[in-house]
Amino acid sequence: MPTFLPPLDAKIHPDYLVDMKYITTLTGMTDKWFYALIKKNKFPLPIKLGRSSRWRLKEVEAWIKTKTN
Question: H or E element: which one contains 48?
Fold first, then answer.
């Protein structure tokens, strides 16, 4: 099943929450790579919802922009 990825400039609520599958599909990097960055405080911390982890889309987009400039 394909994952829907809105464009980075889409008019989405700034606090929209995304999961790791969204982030890995968006970036092409692995979840293990991101969790290693989180341990080093180089990627935004997740918001824990029970056993699930979510990230604010605006924080993920801001992180991507710092890496592409």
Answer: strand 47-49
Return per-residue pLDDT of the chain as tens, 69 residues. Answer: 455 566 555 566 768 899 999 999 999 999 999 999 999 999 999 999 999 999 999 999 999 999 887
Its pTM stands at 0.79
b/e map 17-31, b = 16+ CB within 10 Å: bbbbebbbebeeeee
Taking residue 35's Cβ as centre, other Cβ atoms within 10 Å add up to 14
